[in-house]
Amino acid sequence: MAVTTATRPAISVSGLRKTFGDTVVLDGIDLMVTEGTVFSLLGPNGAGKTTMVRILSTLLPADAGSIRVAGHDLAAEPDGVRAAIGVTGQFSAVDNLLTGEENLRLMADLHHLGRAEGRRRIAGLTDRFDLGELARKPVSVYSGGMRRRLDLAMTLVGEPRLIFLDEPTTGLDPRSRHAMWQIIRGLVAEGVTVFLTTQYLDEADQLADRIAVLDHGRIVVEGTPDELKRSIPGGHIRLRFPDLTALHAAARLVATGQPDDDALILQVPSDGDVRSLRTLLDRLDDAHVEVDHLSIHTPDLDDVFFAFTGTPASTAADHATTGGHR
Amino acid sequence: MTSLAYAVTDSATMLRRQIRHIQRYPSLTAMLIGMPVVLLLLFVYVFGETLGAGLPGGGGDRGAYLNYLLPGILLFSVTGAAQGTAISVAMDMTEGIVDRFRTMAISRAAVLTGHVLGSLVQTLLCIAVVLGIALAIGFRPTATPIEWLATAGVLAAIAFALIWLSVALGLVSDSVETASNLPMFLTLLPFLGSAFVPTDTMPVGLRWFADYQPFTPVIETMRGLLLGTGIGSSAILALSWCAVISLLSYLWARRSFRRRAAR
User: Where do the ABC transmembrane type-2 domain residues begin and end (chain B) (predicted)?
Assistant: First the structure.
């Protein structure tokens, strides 16, 4: 990202609170998203991610806090915010009775684009999102991935400078997921600011410039993906040995390793980089210690939550309430 | 463009969307036409001879009963279509598309206006078909072109009122099933009025209700316009009812739509 844009926040939030009845869903959120970057809000189901997006995209009023989105005060000028943003929610916001093309046309009309301009943008998006094949078929026959692509294409008809993507790949197969990542990267390259929520650490890692981890309505940690991963102890290499002698020999060589005598496994903390892996294997090789099997375990959401909240993500989700949406 | 011009443009866009829905979901329209037609044929050919004999003024035959019945059947078409409106509003609200509209800088009213106008078109279409069938099986109105026009106006007014009511009912429904059941009382109301038999044959309590409920003056006004029976104060009553129902329902719908947003 360019240094000149780094001074202008696309979103700035301070002291945001939201409760549903007795349940506190967002409990004093402060955050800042720089223009032209990808900001990822990471958290388990029910952490408050969707509520956050619904508030920032003017769908829900906040109970407290001052919020500016795309240069407008959210409470005072919601229409100014709406004109600048695009939202692709977790549940597809497409019209099932219309065709893909008609859905895009509907967006073009609602953005008050002229006939020619509307047609130009629709053609461009149809092409880019590979929607041509089914453009004249009703959306009800679309696959999940295709529906999500159309959903995002509809969001882009208005050429928003700030896009909210609420769990854009949840429920997609790996191929559609990667296709979605490619699309998001393309948007960022064009200078669009992206506010992304996800429950997948690897997704945030792939796409985000900054990540904030949301748990029980609070941001428990915020930083770049590297900062976050460095502070997570969960990444490690697992080495399996043919017998106890080899395991103990290896354990003596690698001081940081934790041996498990029953499983014949040595667990060595590592962020998975190749040089340290090679050094480790060279050292074992030099000492003629035979390794049966090796696997690299990268930190996942569970590790993040263990590190920052002391609870795994799944348990955190059980404790949190699902107040985000119907 | 001014914000009013945007509101008109956006409403027109939403109306186009609703018309497409009507085209894509023809079974709903077929059902909306089918119900009043079945009722019409049932009452004319099964009960018609007997009910016709009981009409005031010495009684009539099946043909006379058809003439008496038709205004009520037209109203019944309107209540059926209103039920369709509640269903389509509820369907819309359960899907993400309305949330998308709400995150866009478009006229807030346009979504509901689109539904109302779309349903109005659908209702008038249903009425035209029902009327065509009635004429084919022997309905013989005495109306002049002006009276026809006035009948269309009365139908449009009651349709407008009931559609806004259904929009509100669709918005307060948590599910499509509820939305389909809530307007059921509307389809019952014509039976408890002067749609099928004159109210003076009913027991006192029921008769009182039948005379003062909103549908009776609407039916009597149409009967007067189409067949030349006395209208009296019915026209004023009918239009007042329509205006009151429209206004209250509109305010209720608007409030529910806003409240729906805050979930």
Answer: 27-260
